[in-house]
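#structure-requests
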Amino acid sequence: MMSGAKNINRDMTKLNSSAFSEAAFRFGASLIYAIVLCYAYEVLSLSWAYFGFTYRLTDNRLLYGACVIAAFPSVLLSTRPKTFAECTAWFLYILVYLPCLIVPVMQFSSDLDRLLQIFGTTFVGCVLFLVLSRGEVRRINIKPIPPQIFWGGLAAIWTISMVFIIYSFGQAIQFVSLDDIYTQRFAGAESAFTAVRYALALLASAIDPFLIAAGLYTRRYWLAGIGIFSQVFLFGTLAARAVLLSPIFVIGAYFLADKLGHMRANLFLIGLLIIIAVTAPFLANYDPIGGGVNNIVTLVYLRTLLISGAIFGVYEQFFALYPLTYYSNNNIISLFVQYPYGDLSVGQAVMLTLIPSAARDIGELNANFLATDGVAALGVAGVPVVSAASALILRLLSRFIQPERTMLMVAAGTGFILSMANTSILTSLITGGGILLIALVSFAPLRRD
């Protein structure tokens, strides 16, 4: 009896020690990541201030404290995520919450009281999101669709969508270099009417990523090949970088799975640290029009790791002066609440204050769910509200995914996760592929041979 009790105590001590070590690693890695982001933002602000990357902070002590505090919520992340919500929490903490905590400090758009309000509500939102995302969910048992019906239907949708896209774009389809992306995007926009954009979103955000992940999951690599080919082809329409890079994201996320189908989250952090270790030295001689490795630096830091925080800050500055939407940009809610920006979308209204233009075709400054569903709708007080709501939505989605398919959903859902980092939660669920991916992963007749 005494020997058994000692063994139990020893095992509990080991578990507690292991949990503490892993939490300490997450905190340390997150703090290093935050510090590198601050350095990258300061460098980028010299060239991209007109795009919202402003740097007005004069007391760096505030920034040091912000980095330490912003790294603390990482201890709430699950070491071995078992649900789609727990896995997604890792990505959104890194891509959304941490940048949204530290970038507004560097922007310092108003006074210290306002900054503390922004930082405080975002921190509370982050903690709420991570706490509510944790824990197992009760799974809904879903019977797969018969193979002939499922794959036949999916093949028909894929083929019809591809034919429609090819017919619509015609000779406008061009495979350009990174330097000519915006030229191709402008040329292709004339062919991209609403129905075509939905077809593109259907393939690029849901069907193709699912094919890649399902091919890896079932070891039918030809299936993954179809998805990769399709994404590369779709890049020739509107030259979206995310479409071209999505096969890398899907494959990378899939191989984060361990033998039990859980996410090796620490491996994700290690991979992130390797990326910044390789790319950060090039920031010292960064030239936004220099091409080559400078394009990679722009893609990694400006377009991926820092964009959420920068645009979040821009939205906060805009809606501190202009009317809130109270979700009236939604067609149903607009029946009861008047939308304050006329024919302009929220992103267009913000873009006009950032980059004034008299052109008819106004660009759209899209922002993550914290900015779009939180700040734009309810002000900074909306950040905790939308954080809690998003966590609960992700937990609901997790119920439809069987445990052994969790990492399949994470891999296929990288586009959906990135969409949350760039648009509202509703847009991410619909055009970002969230709902369709849940259906595909849940009902697919997949066997691991």
